[in-house]
Structure formats: structure tokens, C-alpha cells
Amino acid sequence: xxxxTGRRERKKAATRQKIAExxxxxxxxxxxxxxxxxxxxAEADVAVxxxxxxxxxxxxxxxxxxxxxxxxxxxxxTDRAPHEPLVPAxxxxxxxxxxxxxxxxxxxxxxxxxxxxxxxxxxxxxxxRHAESLATALLADPGLRQSxxxxxxxxRFVIAAYALARDADDPQAAVDEIFQMIEAAWNVx
Length: 189
Description:
single chain; 189 residues; mainly alpha; 0% strand
């Protein structure tokens, strides 16, 4: 995540973080469906309008790092060295994301997500958006020769790799196994 430089940006980031941490704590303590937006705002000591200036919906509170993850994936494409192969760069980023999301303490969050239809649907729409952003970055890369269909397909595979590996018994081994298939598919196109 980029560290805000100005005082105003730091204060906004701190408020956003406080809201997200408060929401997650309340959701885990009381249950996602039992906590309302007003509860989160009151506990975080912010106005409901302030909460909504940072988060578009109640579901977005759970996926606070959504934008950061999306940017990390696209930067894996756009910021890689000129002759660095694409698939290893994406694998490295997905491995880091999976490591973050399987760290100690993450299991209760994913149980909460799995137990809520609204959160599962939000996560799925988030994955589709991430895949489209990644596909756009792939298509914009002048060094890649693959078709739009190939770029969109590989982008979805990468996003699916993250989700599948996160739920595997050995997440890092799963990332490696899945990316062997992704690389084979990418090399065929």
C-alpha cells in the first residue's frame, strides 16, 4: 500500500483504517448481519457520511484492501522489468497476496465471508473487476502479442489462482501448481 505523504492524506488514511478495523472487529464479535453501518460509524466515532466517503457499501468494509490488491496485480504487469517474463511476475504477486490472506488470524474473516451471501457476491464481483483491470493492463502492454481473448482468459485464471490457493491446504504449493498451468496456457496463445 502506498504511504500518504501529506498531512491531510495521512489523516484520511488513518480514518479509513480506523473505520475498517472497527467494522471488522464488530463483524467478528457480533456477526456480519447483526452489525449495521450506523453501529460501525458510532463505534469508530465518525459520521455515517464520513464512513460512506471512505467505503461505498457495508461489504466494502470487509474488503478494505480491495483497491490495493487490484493495483498490485496491474503493477505486476506494468512495473516489471522490460525483459522480465509476465507469468513469473504475476506468480510472485499472487504468492505475496496469498501469503497475506492466509496469515494467522485470517481464517475467521474467510469463515465470515463464506457464511454471508452478500459478502460472497461482493467478493465475486470484486474478482471480476480485478480480472478486467488485469486484462486491460495485459492488453496495454506493447511487448505482449496475445489476443484480447487470451489476455482476458489469463487474467481470470490469475484471479482464480488467488482464490483457489487461498483455500488450499498448502497455499504456496497450490500457487505454484496453478501457475504451471497458467504459464502453459499463456505460452500456447
